[in-house]
Specification:
The protein is mostly helical. Helix 11 crosses helix 18 and helix 12 crosses helix 19. The longest helix has 31 residues. The N and C termini lie far apart (64 Å).
Length: 383
Amino acid sequence: MSYIAETLGNLVHQTAFFNLTWGNYIMIVVACVFLYLAIAKEYEPLLLVPISFGMLLVNIYPDIMLSIEDSPNGVGGLLHYFYLMDEWAILPSLIFMGVGAMTDFGPLIANPKSFLLGAAAQFGIFAAYLGAMALGFSDKAAAAISIIGGADGPTSIFLAGKLQQTAIMGPIAVAAYSYMSLVPIIQPPIMKLLTTEEERKIKMAQLRPVSKLEKILFPIIVTIIVSMILPTTAPLVGMLMLGNLFRESGVVRQLTETASNALMYIVVILLGTSVGATTSAEAFLNWDTIKIVILGLVAFSFGTAAGVLFGKLMCKVTGGKVNPLIGSAGVSAVPMAARVSQKVGAEADPTNFLLMHAMGPNVAGVIGTAVAAGTFMAIFGVF
């Protein structure tokens, strides 16, 4: 009888109830809130479901992220191996290849001025960098945090890994992906505040047709020019353009389908769960995390505002031919930011179709964020 009681007692004490801290319970609640937003509200579920579930797992069973060095038998936790691919910049680069294979660069090619709107929206990145420095973060940590301003999760993870800021990678990634998911909530008030009803109703001329040759040459030329100027951007820009070349060449349909579907979704699962698993209570519940989340929101808001304001400037210069709303799409959240531009424009005039015009700055923002990350790497001598 004593043996049975002892065995049952051991089993009970092996349950998570006796090992979790109050912080773990808070993070479990946060994970459940994220799951609710992803499933019930459909806020970017492809990202939030794996991220929040990884958050749930690590706060119930922390050893699922146990590193090889800390393991008594030399075998790390399951999600630790996923996380290593984040640190090594493998998963973020593969995400970019999938994005390239899924995205039509035609609107950007048809309207090269979109590059200016994409560049303007990167103002949030450098505003966040200065803000992080002012709040006491190191220069490398500030650089890693600042990419949140571009609303680009993969690039945020990529730069944090390259700058060896793994201690804050979890909060950075969660903040970046959260703001990507909340684009439809955060951006519209800023866009409406900075534009008039008349500006939101502006209809833009139809974009010119883009030839197949142009679409094939574009990823090759961009890769050569950007990588020659900033070689550190090659992993991200190179994979983005390789995926797009798959799409536009028309001779590797199987590779296009794999990169944009099966491979993309596999990488999202690995990246999302491993990112979520970095948010243990010990790593996440501290003042630095709060600062990062606030900085990310401020930076993303600044980037949106800068894009809209530059759009207003282009509207004036062109005599009212540019709808300022497309400037908000200059952040890197593809294609959510472009859809928000379309939605806000359609609210002012249901016959206004801005989606394709907004895709130009949106794609430019992806390239711009990668260039910003490469610039920071070059500044700090990281390759």
